[in-house]
Amino acid sequence: MNNNSSQSKELADEELYIGTAPSESLEMYLKAIWQISERGNEVKVSSIAKLLNIRQPSVVNMLHKLNEENFVDYSKENNSIRITIRGKQIASRMIRNTRLLEILMRDSLRIAIDEEMVCGIEHHMKKVFTDALCTLLKHPVECPHGHPIPQGKCCQSGLKYQGQPSNGI
């Protein structure tokens, strides 16, 4: 009996979570829009579809949803797609998570950057984890691909990492 009760306790201590990132699809669209804009390209249905490797009608459907939720301003008539402040907040968080994970893989873990793995993790990162990771990595300012990493509040209190670790942070 003792063995069964200790096994039950062990199982009770371990928590499982299903559907912890229900907004992954929404986040991927906003991240795609951010990346297209960041590279200086016009955000179009076709460019989103190409980046996400999906069909254009699926993009149009999601843009309507994102527009209804005020994540983007989308006008099919003008073929105009603009990310809103609300959308930028989510996209910025996703981009920050992605780029910090890439730095972690390359510099700390010394493994090849696995974009599929990064994509699987980025949606589940809480702010406290992201800020701790950023601090651990000495507040890097750009990812291994040379793109800027959006700063968090943790970055405002210290020196920024630009290739060499800063002192005291």
Describe the structure.
- This protein is elongated.
- Helices cover 53% and strands 5% of the residues.
- Helix 2 packs across helix 5 (85-108).
- It has a two-stranded antiparallel sheet.
- The chain is mostly helical and 169 residues long.
- It is built from seven helices and two strands.
- Residues 159-169 have low confidence and may be disordered.
- The termini are far apart.
- Strand 1 and strand 2 form a beta hairpin.
- H/E topology pattern: HHHHEEHHH
Number of helices: 7
Q: Calculate the terminal CA-CA distance, rounded to whole Å.
A: 51 Å
Give the helix proportion (percent range).
40-55%
Could you write a compact summary of the structure shown?
With 169 residues, this protein is mostly helical. It has 2 domains: 60 residues, Arc Repressor Mutant, subunit A (Orthogonal Bundle), CATH 1.10.10; 64 residues, Orthogonal Bundle (Arc Repressor Mutant, subunit A), CATH 1.10.10.
How would you describe this structure in keywords?
2 strands, 5% strand, Arc Repressor Mutant, subunit A, 53% helix, 2 domains, disordered C terminus, single chain
Present the secondary structure layout.
Blueprint: H1 2-13, H2 24-38, H3 45-52, H4 56-68, E1 72-75, E2 80-83, H5 85-108, H6 115-122, H7 127-136
Antiparallel strand pairs: 1-2
Helix pairs in contact: 2-3, 2-5, 3-4, 5-6
